Amino acid sequence: MELYINMALLTMLAAVTVAIIVQRDLFSVVILSGIYSFLMASVLIVLDAVDVAMTEASVGAGISTVVLIGTLYLTGQKRELNYHRSIAVPLFVSLGTGAMLIWGTWGLPAFGIQDAPVHTHIAPTFLLESIPETGVPNVVTTVLADYRSFDTFGETTVIFTAGLGVMLLLGGSRRKKKKGETKS
Amino acid sequence: MFTIASIAVMIALALAVTRAILGPTVFDRVLAANTIGTLAILLLAVIGFLMGRPEWLDIALVYGLLNLIGTLAVLKYFRHGDLAHDAEQDTKS
Amino acid sequence: MMPAVIIAAGASSSAVAAGPAIPLDVYIDWIVHILSWAAILSGSFFVLVGSVGLIRMPDVFTRMHAASIIDTLGAGLLVAGMMMQAGPSLITLKLIFIMLLFLVTSPVATHALAQAALHAGEKPELKEDRTNEPGSPRAQLEEAQHQAEGKR
User: Fold this and answer.
1) What is the pLDDT of residue A160?
2) CA of B75 vs chain A CAs: smallest distance (Å)
3) Are residues C79 and C144 in the same domain?
4) Helix, strand or coil for residue C21?
């Protein structure tokens, strides 16, 4: 069942992509890309990657639709310009890149295999040495807060900045009102 | 039971995508996008029940909110030609 | 899966009790199960009807009408069926929230869409536009609009 749902969703994704390429009206392209994000998020959910799906839906269907519409408003461009350029070079580049990517997949280990490099190389190291090195019983916490502490620090800064921005946006008007009241 | 429901929702999704691709006007596409958002929420809920993981409903809620925001942003642009338009100014002037 | 379990439960309990002593819970489970089947099947039917309408209807406004079937009847019945399957739990609460979200956002989005479409000059297709000549309703719509503007 999961397989068939995935196949159907991916077919629809391909159809929407072709429609985006063919479409000349830029508004329609924005809306179709929103539809693409919703379908892609559904595919990711069926694949059990819930966090990625959440990001895809909020960034793809939410923010980028609004930002793209704002861009269309600022530029005033409603239709794609007709460039009469040769398609030979872009076609060659995209076909070449696609061929290289497919060629690269042949070097990957089989799906879910036990002795893939991920399972033989780094994971045992963490499992064996994290407690003697750091003394933290939870391996995930060790990776996030010890081995990748600078990365986590950066992420925390981003979230802190976002929260600060929200607080400023929500609380700013109240302070202004107070000032107005004291003046009057 | 949930298999039947998910098949129905998938067929509906395919038809809505068809309308989004064919749609002669932009509004048809916006309508189709809105419907696709609704159907994606339903698909999520149904598949969650089908696979025994109903906690996906949290994401369905997020989808619903995003769907409304995207639709309203597009439509506000079309109605007023501006995303930051204040409707009260219209009635005052 | 579920009906089989329930049948088995009912059969075993009746076999054990060997009489009309089937507990009331089994009957209630049965009724809830059948109701949720009915709700989910009819919800699927209405979702299909709405999406077929989305394809078959002639212009934006009638398509909105078709799409709102999915938002109200289709989603409502599906969510009701799922609530009956989930029983009283946190899942049911989330489903109620999803349903409330649908009930609030769907009319707002449809209203905004209709307003924007009217503002942009989309005209609903009327009965007169169809009865002039059979075939090519779009072209007739344009013609009818031109005639109406000429009369004014």
Assistant:
1) 94
2) 10
3) no
4) coil
Residue C43: its chain B contacts at CB < 8 A? 5
Domain ranges of chain A: 1-81
Closest of B68, B81, B58 to residue B37, by C-alpha: B68
Top residue of C6, C34, C51, C71 to mutate, by most chain B CBs within 10 Å, is C51
Q: Which of B5, B24, B38 sits opposite C70 (nearest CB)?
A: B38
Asked if residue C140 and residue C97 are part of one domain, the reply reads no
Domain that holds residue B14: 2-82
**For C54, which of B4, B35, B42 is closest by C-beta distance?**
B35
Residues C143 and C101 in one domain: no
Full domain range(s) for residue C66? 2-121
What's the gap in Å between the CA of C6 and the closest CA on chain B? 15
Instruction: Tell me how far the alpha carbon of residue B19 is from its chain's centroid.
Output: 13
Local confidence band at C13 (pLDDT 50, 70, 90 cut-offs): very low
From B59's Cα to the closest Cα of chain C, the distance in A is: 10
Evaluate whether chains A and C are touching (3 or more beta carbon pairs less than 8 Å apart): no
Regarding whether C80 and C115 lie in a shared domain, the answer is: yes
- Tell me what pLDDT residue C14 has: 45
pTM (whole model) above 0.80? no
- How far is Cα A177 from Cα C61, in angstroms, rounded to an integer? 44
Confidence of residue C139 (pLDDT cuts 50, 70, 90): low
Give the chains touching C; criterion: ≥3 Cβ pairs < 8 Å: B
- Whether the pLDDT of residue C19 is over 70: the answer is no
pLDDT at A173 over 60: no
Integer Cα distance of B32 and B30 in angstroms: 5
Q: Which residue of B3, B21, B56, B67 is the best one to mutate when testing the A interface, meaning the one whose CB has the most A CBs within 10 A?
A: B21
Q: What is the pLDDT of residue C135?
A: 53
Three-state SS annotation for A133-170: HHCCCCHHHHHHHHHCHHHHHHHHHHHHHHHHHHHHHH
